[in-house]
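ok so for the tutorial part 2 we go from a plain amino acid sequence to predicted structure tokens. step 1 is just haveing the sequence, like this:
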Amino acid sequence: MRSYGRLHTTYLTCLEGDRMNKKLFLTQALLVATMLLNTPAFADGYEDAAPATAPLTDYSDIPVISGGIGEELDYLKSIQHHYNLKLLITESNGIFLSDVEVHIEDKQGNEVADLVAEGPIVLAKLPAGSYKIKATRHEDEVREIKVFVKAGKLNAYSVAFHNTDPRESGDPKTTSLQ
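step 2 — the prediction. this is what the tokens look like for a chain of 178 residues:
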């Protein structure tokens, strides 16, 4: 007979034991079922439950979340409709970047958010208006873009940095393999 882990072993032990063991088994089975049904994968509000790897930070009542590495990418795509600003941070060849400093200011120059992006995607829920976004990589490579955010609509922008791989530069001297 094939073993299916601890729960299966416990069940077999309970079948061989007395009534107290059967109660113990039923209690354990109920506990395991309750834990499984309360995990985000089985809960009704899965798309609203943030995984531990995609940190949510509030800046002046502005929800901001960043991430997008591995399973986070699917998760962020599933919740992006709750936000009105989406930044995609890449190299110019499309390679996703993380650990990029992102600074968002409103048109009066007030800081709205200041964070280090934990992945290529930054989502924010901002009041409608114009913003300046400054993204910094390696402390010296800076990109600034101006964005206009509409309320109730996802406004997507991208920030692209130079490629770090010299083979991607397009220079024939660096792309040939010798």
